[in-house]
């Protein structure tokens, strides 16, 4: 059987799914909106502490103009989250939100590498294939994962002996927070996609405004 007609039919079948192409940006928006609303609201409710963290060089970020930068970050995240939810000015708000993610990556997470949660088992670590290629950062992460596993094992043994371990782990297991760029980079890429594609058809204010203001001939 000729493979070319089969490939053509497969491509045509896949093209039919484009009628639902609005779902991807919609889900991106619904995923990101509560993330940014929560981040902005947390900063707003503890704004003085946020300003102190932005400005303190010893235990904070050591940024200049901490009040101004804290206010910009707070309201960009808070307002931006609601704009994403409703799909209004999506491509415009994606730009300052991407900027806040880049700042977070460079000032908060970069020194901790990629992983948000430290891998605790070298055998299943996502760094393993990259380490096999000889990438130094991945090799370091892989070496550290063995040490993380030892510490988690020790912590579990202590808690089993001296604490109510089943109650402590009822809502989730213990992990070691690594605070790497993983989550911020993921949000950045999702925002980048929304910047280029927009909020999607039908279920966004931008879509209906565009139809009203720029009707197709």
Layout of strands and helices, then pairs:
Blueprint: H1 3-15, H2 23-45, H3 47-55, H4 66-86, H5 90-109, H6 128-132, H7 136-162, H8 165-168, H9 182-197, H10 205-213
Helix pairs in contact: 2-4, 2-9, 3-4, 4-5, 5-9
Total discrete domains = 2
| C-alpha geometry | globular
The radius of gyration over CA amounts to: 23 Å
Quaternary state of the chains: single chain
Q: How confident is the prediction overall: mean pLDDT?
A: 92
Q: Tell me how many strands there are.
A: 0
Compressed to H and E, one letter per element, the order equals: HHHHHHHHHH
Classification by helices and strands: mainly alpha
Low-confidence stretches: none
N- to C-terminal distance: 44 Å
| Helical percentage | 55-70%
Q: How many alpha or pi helices?
A: 10
SS strand fraction = under 5%
Could you describe the largest sheet, including whether it forms a barrel? none
């Amino acid at each position: 059987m000729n493979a070319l007609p089969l490939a053509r039919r497969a491509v045509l079948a896949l093209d039919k799914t484009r009628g639902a192409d609005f779902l991807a940006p919609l889900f991106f928006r619904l995923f990101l909106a509560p993330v940014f609303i929560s981040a902005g609201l947390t900063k707003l409710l503890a704004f003085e502490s946020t300003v102190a963290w932005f400005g303190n060089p010893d235990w904070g970020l050591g940024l200049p103009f901490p009040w101004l930068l804290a206010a910009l970050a707070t309201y960009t995240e808070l307002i931006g989250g609601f704009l994403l939810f409703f799909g209004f000015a999506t491509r415009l708000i994606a730009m300052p939100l991407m900027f806040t993610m880049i700042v977070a990556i460079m000032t908060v997470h970069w020194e901790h590498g990629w992983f948000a949660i430290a891998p605790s088992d070298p055998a299943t670590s996502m760094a393993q294939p990259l380490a096999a290629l000889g990438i130094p950062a991945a090799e370091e992460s892989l070496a550290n994962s063995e040490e993380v596993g030892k510490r988690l094992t020790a912590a579990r043994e202590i808690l089993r002996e001296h604490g109510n371990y089943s109650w402590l782990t009822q809502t989730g297991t213990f992990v070691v927070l690594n605070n790497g760029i993983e989550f911020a980079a993921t949000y950045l890429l999702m925002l980048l996609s929304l910047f280029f594609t927009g909020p999607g058809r039908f279920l966004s204010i931008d879509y209906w405004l565009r139809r009203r203001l720029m009707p197709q001939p």
